[in-house]
C-alpha cells in the first residue's frame, strides 16, 4: 500500500473513549483509528514513539515508518463498541453530540481504499450515535469522503462531519522534504477549498511549523491560503521533539537542499531557550492574525514556561 508492505492485526477495538486528544480540543475525548502505521512517512511523525511497545509490531522486522499496519475487522469492531448484541445503539441520547476525532495514529484518506474504509466507519458512527466527527488528513481525498457520506442524507453528514487538511507550510518542495509520500500541499489546499465551496464544515491545521525568517508573512499567507474565515477553528503548532523525529527531519531537509532550514531547526532542537523563543514568536503572529475564539495554538509547557503561556490562554493558547 503506497509502496509499503501491509500487515494486518486483529481489531480488538477501534474507538478510544478517553484519548489525550481531548486536551488538544480536537475532540471531546473519543478518537477512532483503523490502523497503527500509516501509508505516509512523515519525518516528524510522533506515532512511532507511541507504538514502540505495541504488540502490533510483534514479528515485524522493518521500522514503524516502513510499513502499513491495518486493523482487520475494523467495521465489526467499531459496531460492537457502539451497539449491543441486538444492534441497539449504546449512545442514543440526542443531546450527546460529542466530537470524535480520526485519526490519532494514521491518515484517514491516504488512498482510495482507506477513503472507502473511512466512509464505512463514519457511516456506522453516524447511524448509531448523534456524535460529530472530525477528520484530519494530509491527502487530497477528503472531498471523496464527503461525497460518499452525502449519498446517505438521513445521516446528516454535512452537518455532523468537520474536515481538515494539514498545512504546515505553503512551500511544496519544503513540505515534500519532510512529508514523504504525501500529496503536494498546494493540492491539499485545493481540496480544502473544494470542501468549503461545497458548503462542508472545515477546520485549519497549521502544523508542524518550522522556524521562519519572516513569521509575520508566513502566518498571514497561510491563514489566507486555508481561508481561515471559512474554518470553524484553526489549530497551530511548532515542531516538537519525539524520539528521533527531529534528527530525521533535519536530515530530510538537508537531503532536499534546505540547508538553512535544517540549521535553524537543529538550533532550536538543541537550545531550550531558542525553542521557546521560536514557539512564542510563532504563537504571537498567529494570535495577531487570528481571532482568539478561533485559534487553538498547541504548546507543550514546562514548569518554567507555564506562567507565560497561562497568560496567553485567552488569546488562543492551549497548554499541553
What is the topological layout?
Layout (H helix, E strand, L loop, with lengths): L5 E5 L4 E2 L13 E3 L2 E3 L3 E2 L4 H4 L17 E5 L1 H9 L16 E4 L9 H17 L3 E6 L4 H8 L7 H4 E6 L5 H7 E2 L4 H13 L3 E9 L5 H11 L8 E5 L6 H11 L3 H12 L1 H18 L5 E5 L6 H5 L6 E3 L1
Parallel strand pairs: 1-6, 3-7, 7-8, 8-9, 9-11, 11-12, 12-13, 13-14
Antiparallel strand pairs: 2-3, 4-6, 5-10
Helix pairs in contact: 2-3, 3-4, 8-11, 9-10, 10-11
Structural notes for this entry:
This protein has 320 residues and is an alpha/beta fold. It has one domain (92-319): pyruvate-formate lyase- activating enzyme (Alpha-Beta Horseshoe), CATH 3.80.30. It contains twelve helices and 14 strands. The strands form three sheets. A nine-stranded mixed sheet has the order 2-3-7-8-9-11-12-13-14. It has a three-stranded mixed sheet with strand order 1-6-4, with no helix packed on it. Strands 5-10 form a two-stranded antiparallel sheet. Strand 7, helix 3 (112-128) and strand 8 form a beta-alpha-beta unit. Helix 2 (74-82) runs parallel beside helix 3. The chain is globular, with a radius of gyration of 19 Å.
Net shape: globular
Number of helices: 12
CATH-assigned fold name: pyruvate-formate lyase- activating enzyme
Radius of gyration: 19 Å
Mean model confidence by pLDDT: 96
Annotation, overall tally of beta strands: 14
Question: CATH class, please?
Answer: Alpha Beta
Low-confidence stretches: none
Give the N-to-C terminal Cα separation: 34 Å
Strand content: 15-25%
Order of helices and strands: EEEEEHEHEHEHHEHEHEHEHHHEHE
Order of strands, widest sheet: 2-3-7-8-9-11-12-13-14
Major sheet: 9 strands, mixed
Amino acid at each position: 500500500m503506497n509502496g509499503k508492505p501491509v500487515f494486518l492485526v486483529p481489531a480488538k477495538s477501534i474507538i478510544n473513549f478517553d484519548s489525550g486528544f481531548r486536551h488538544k480540543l480536537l475532540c471531546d475525548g473519543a478518537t477512532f483509528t483503523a490502523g497503527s502505521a500509516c501509508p505516509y512517512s512523515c519525518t516528524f511523525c510522533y506515532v512511532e514513539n507511541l507504538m514502540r511497545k505495541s504488540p502490533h509490531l510483534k514479528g515485524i522486522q522493518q521500522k514503524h515508518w516502513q510499513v502499513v499496519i491495518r486493523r482487520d475487522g475494523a467495521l465489526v469492531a467499531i459496531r460492537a463498541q457502539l451497539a449491543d448484541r441486538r444492534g441497539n445503539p449504546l449512545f442514543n441520547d440526542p443531546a450527546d453530540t460529542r466530537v470524535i476525532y480520526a485519526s490519532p495514529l494514521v491518515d484517514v484518506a491516504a488512498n482510495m481504499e482507506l477513503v472507502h474504509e473511512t466512509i464505512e466507519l463514519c457511516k456506522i458512527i453516524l447511524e448509531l450515535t448523534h456524535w460529530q466527527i472530525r477528520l484530519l488528513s494530509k491527502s487530497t481525498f477528503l472531498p471523496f469522503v464527503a461525497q460518499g457520506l452525502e449519498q446517505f442524507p438521513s445521516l446528516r453528514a454535512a452537518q455532523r462531519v468537520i474536515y481538515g487538511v494539514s498545512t504546515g507550510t505553503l512551500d511544496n518542495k519544503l513540505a515534500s522534504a519532510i512529508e514523504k509520500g504525501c500529496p503536494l500541499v498546494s493540492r491539499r489546499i485545493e481540496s480544502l477549498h473544494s470542501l468549503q465551496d461545497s458548503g462542508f464544515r472545515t477546520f485549519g491545521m497549521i502544523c508542524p511549523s518550522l522556524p521562519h525568517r519572516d513569521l509575520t508573512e508566513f502566518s498571514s499567507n497561510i491563514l489566507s491560503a486555508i481561508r481561515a474565515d471559512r474554518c470553524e477553528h484553526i489549530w497551530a503548532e511548532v515542531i516538537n521533539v519525539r524520539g528521533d523525529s527531529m534528527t530525521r527531519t533535519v536530515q530530510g531537509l538537508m537531503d532536499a537542499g534546505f540547508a538553512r532550514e535544517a540549521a535553524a531547526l537543529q538550533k532550536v532542537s538543541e537550545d531550550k531557550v531558542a525553542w521557546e523563543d521560536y514557539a512564542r514568536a510563532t504563537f504571537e503572529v498567529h494570535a495577531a492574525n487570528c481571532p482568539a475564539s478561533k485559534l487553538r495554538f498547541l504548546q507543550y509547557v514546562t514548569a518554567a514556561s507555564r506562567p507565560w503561556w497561562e497568560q496567553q490562554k485567552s488569546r488562543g493558547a492551549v497548554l499541553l
